From TrEMBL:
<keyword id="KW-0472">Membrane</keyword>
<dbReference type="GO" id="GO:0008865">
    <property type="term" value="F:fructokinase activity"/>
</dbReference>
<dbReference type="Pfam" id="PF00349">
    <property type="entry name" value="Hexokinase_1"/>
</dbReference>
<dbReference type="GO" id="GO:0004340">
    <property type="term" value="F:glucokinase activity"/>
</dbReference>
<dbReference type="GO" id="GO:0006096">
    <property type="term" value="P:glycolytic process"/>
</dbReference>
<keyword id="KW-0324">Glycolysis</keyword>
<dbReference type="InterPro" id="IPR022672">
    <property type="entry name" value="Hexokinase_N"/>
</dbReference>
<keyword id="KW-0418">Kinase</keyword>
<dbReference type="GO" id="GO:0006006">
    <property type="term" value="P:glucose metabolic process"/>
</dbReference>
<keyword id="KW-1133">Transmembrane helix</keyword>
<comment type="pathway">
    <text>Carbohydrate metabolism; hexose metabolism.</text>
</comment>
<dbReference type="GO" id="GO:0005829">
    <property type="term" value="C:cytosol"/>
</dbReference>
<dbReference type="GO" id="GO:0005536">
    <property type="term" value="F:D-glucose binding"/>
</dbReference>
<dbReference type="GO" id="GO:0005524">
    <property type="term" value="F:ATP binding"/>
</dbReference>
<dbReference type="GO" id="GO:0005739">
    <property type="term" value="C:mitochondrion"/>
</dbReference>
<keyword id="KW-0812">Transmembrane</keyword>
<feature type="domain" description="Hexokinase N-terminal">
    <location>
        <begin position="41"/>
        <end position="148"/>
    </location>
</feature>
């Protein structure tokens, strides 16, 4: 081989080695970024997790508040209204039914015609009325007087 060919081969080999080194360096740098990102995610997960005993304590406190709210008006910090629903629909219901939905900002009256298992919902109409915010935080008598 002549000197020119050997020189060209050396230059090509050096270029290939430099390119390989650059690729390895970038991959290891990206790998380091990935490890740092995973460490941040694990730290975030640890700080957001709630131990099971604490979750049970929260559930117990919620049950106490719900029972107090159902026992008397103003007995709880939760806003609650007794619904008196004592059984679930079967799917066999036929006829015209009404639903009253009191949400956080609106009161909605729904009229629905049910056709049983064969036709389910035949027809549905609804009317929605906004509730002033002061009534949603006041006494229930004032709210129901407004709705009536």
């Amino acid at each position: 081989m002549n000197k020119f060919k050997v020189g060209a081969m050396v230059v090509c080999a050096a270029t290939a080695c430099a390119a390989a080194a650059l690729i390895v360096r970038r991959r290891s740098r990206n790998n380091g970024k990935m490890k740092r990102a995973l460490a941040i995610l694990h730290e975030f997960e640890d700080k957001c997790s709630i131990p099971l005993p604490k979750l049970r304590q929260m559930v117990d406190a919620l049950i106490v508040e719900m029972n107090a709210g159902l026992a008397s008006e103003g007995g709880s910090r939760l806003k609650m209204l007794i619904s008196y629903v004592d059984n679930l629909p079967t799917g066999d219901e036929k006829g015209i039914f009404y639903s009253l939905d009191l949400g956080g900002t609106n009161f909605r009256v729904i009229r629905v015609e049910l056709g049983g298992k064969e036709r389910q919902v035949v027809h549905q109409d609804f009317e929605e009325v906004p509730i002033p915010p002061e009534l949603m935080t006041g006494r229930t008598e004032e709210l129901f007087d407004y709705i009536a």
